[in-house]
Design brief:
Number of domains: 2
Largest sheet: 7 strands, mixed
Distance between the termini: 60 Å
Strand content: 15-25%
Shape: globular
Number of helices: 18
CATH architecture of the largest domain: 3-Layer(aba) Sandwich
Helix content: 25-40%
Number of strands: 25
CATH class of the largest domain: Alpha Beta
Radius of gyration: 25 Å
């Protein structure tokens, strides 16, 4: 079967979907607010899958469900519920013992795991992620929650003692910040969202949670677990158009932490809406255009393998994806040919296709945007090197290797967030450093070289331009124990299992002068367990 025949046959009739992967329409008519699953009778948004079904009228995106389009009224009710639950730090949740909060989170993990099959299926259908990657996302998220619990235990153990300095005795612990507004991305609607949501909750904050535009239904099966595992008002969901409901929340000045994963422009606008910036903490993971630098001393076979994974995992729709490749001109031809050959071997299909590497794109306007980027590159002197590069069928786009890319092109500047690989030839390594200096992004870079002096020479300037330098490997977030952040417009704050707990809390202490009266006072409080903060309990 020719490539074009395969492309034309990509989408199937609904009857041809394997039984175990079929999905029933999920029409959400409730939302979680102030501990209640409140009924919704207003406007709804229809959710269409990037997976098209063949119909007599041609391929059509499959309707998989609907969800509420909330208004300012519901958003403000959720905000007031979160404020009341926090109660200026006096609420049940912020004053609960760390051990008590951990038990609630453990119950949540148990209830969440019971929804595994449905959540995985929703990830597949709602954003087009392959079955294996959707399962990995769910399982990695559960692992992340368990690792977060373990990390909090470690932090609490280190704090379960008094410190004495200059005749002052104190106990130093971490305490919550207040109301957190959490907004996650569509590409990892569960995992990336939970990397801020989970640490925010477990540290004693209360939460306003707005699911991503693509990936909203993914969270619906988990709302009951949030309701049953945490006190009322701790977790509140917000639905509706972000431009409508979110600015009012920020303008209220009552949001203490903005946890946002998305574009820097949106993050900047949201921060500007807040009237008390000194009271607002921002934890942001934003734009990135991570570069690969392939020198003449690179192992081309290894390099191409890593770049394929780095640039095309989930169709290149990752903030950590490799989005521009700099290749030394002396090896450019061999590199490009090897890269094109490797792409030709990638399997494309629907999310349930075994071994599939390339799937349909969830954003309706993305194929047209990528086509425009390719045409812009051609108009400025580049070519699509690989056979069938950029070929499209409805929501599916086959990867395109574009060469030689230069500074006049959109692909040089813009984060394409899709399966297009811009390749830039260079003569002098300084050209690549200049690109990173001028770039508004500063998340990561990958160096591909086996020359010791060359790699060492690059490391020292690059660690001051980006937050992570990868040697002979793709850019990536994990392991989750490592810090994940960025410079410039790519991030604010640091996320990792432990760093995230710190990001959503502040060090607080109780202190007094060392004298007999105060020692007796502290001993009685600790001995009789009269305070949840002032305690020497050790969590095992």
């Amino acid at each position: 079967m020719s490539f074009q025949d395969q492309l034309n046959a990509l989408f199937v009739e609904e009857s041809q979907v394997p039984e175990e992967f079929r999905i029933e329409e999920l029409h959400q008519r409730e939302y979680l607010s102030n501990g209640e699953m409140k009924k919704w009778t207003g406007e709804v948004t229809e959710v269409y899958s990037p997976v098209c079904m063949v119909t007599p009228e041609g391929p059509k995106r499959k309707l998989i469900g609907t969800y509420p389009v909330g208004t300012d009224k519901e958003a403000n009710e959720a905000l007031n519920a979160a404020i009341a639950a926090y109660d200026n730090g006096r609420g049940e949740w912020p004053t609960m013992t760390v051990e008590g909060r951990i038990k609630c989170m453990q119950k949540f993990v148990y209830m969440m795991s019971q929804q595994r099959d449905l959540v995985i299926k929703l990830i597949m259908w709602e954003i087009g992620k392959s079955q294996s990657d959707a399962a990995k996302e769910f399982d990695r998220t559960v692992e992340y929650i368990n690792n977060t619990i373990d990390a909090l235990k470690d932090i609490d153990r280190q704090s379960s003692r008094f410190e004495i300095e200059e005749n002052v005795v104190a106990q130093i612990r971490r305490s919550p910040l207040g109301v957190v507004l959490c907004m996650g991305p569509f590409n990892y609607p569960l995992n990336e969202t939970f990397t801020t949501l989970i640490p925010a909750i477990i540290m004693g904050n209360t939460l306003l949670f707005k699911p991503p535009k693509h990936g909203t239904l993914v969270h619906y099966p988990l709302l009951k677990a949030f309701q049953e595992c945490f006190p009322k008002g701790v977790v509140n969901t917000i639905y509706g158009r972000g431009a409508t409901v979110v600015p009012g929340l920020m303008k209220s000045g009552k949001v203490n932490v903005l946890a946002f994963i998305g574009s820097s422009k949106v993050a900047n606008d949201l921060k500007k809406d807040h009237p008390k910036l000194n009271r607002l903490r921002a934890v942001l993971s934003l734009d990135a255009k991570n570069a690969a630098i392939v020198t003449k001393h690179a192992d081309i076979k290894l390099t191409v393998s890593e770049i394929i994974t780095g640039a095309l995992t989930f169709n290149g729709q990752r903030c950590t994806a490799l989005k521009i490749i700099f290749v030394h001109e002396s090896i450019a031809d061999e590199f490009n040919q090897t890269l094109c050959d490797a792409i030709a071997q990638l399997k494309f299909g629907l999310p349930w296709t075994k071994g599939v590497a390339l799937t349909p794109l969830p954003e309706p306007g993305k194929p047209a945007y990528l086509a425009a980027c390719i045409e812009d590159a051609k108009a400025n002197g580049a070519k699509v090197l690989n056979e069938n590069g950029g070929a499209t069928n409805e929501s599916f786009v086959f990867p395109a290797v574009v060469y030689p890319v230069n500074s006049k092109m959109k692909l040089y500047r813009e984060e394409q967030f899709g399966p297009v690989i811009p390749v830039v030839p260079f003569k002098d390594i300084e050209e690549t450093i200049d690109y990173l200096i001028d770039s508004p992004h500063g998340q990561q870079v990958s160096i591909f070289s086996n020359d010791v002096e060359e790699v060492a020479h690059l490391i020292d300037p690059l660690v001051n331009l980006v937050s992570r330098v990868n040697i002979n490997t793709q850019c990536q977030r994990g392991p989750d124990a490592f810090p994940f952040t960025g410079r410039k417009d790519s991030a604010e704050g640091t996320l990792s299992v432990t760093d995230a707990l710190r990001s959503f809390s502040i060090r607080s202490l109780v202190a007094t002068k060392m004298n007999d009266t105060n020692k007796k006072l502290l001993n009685e409080i600790v001995k009789d367990h009269r305070s949840n903060f002032l305690t020497t309990d050790f969590i095992f």
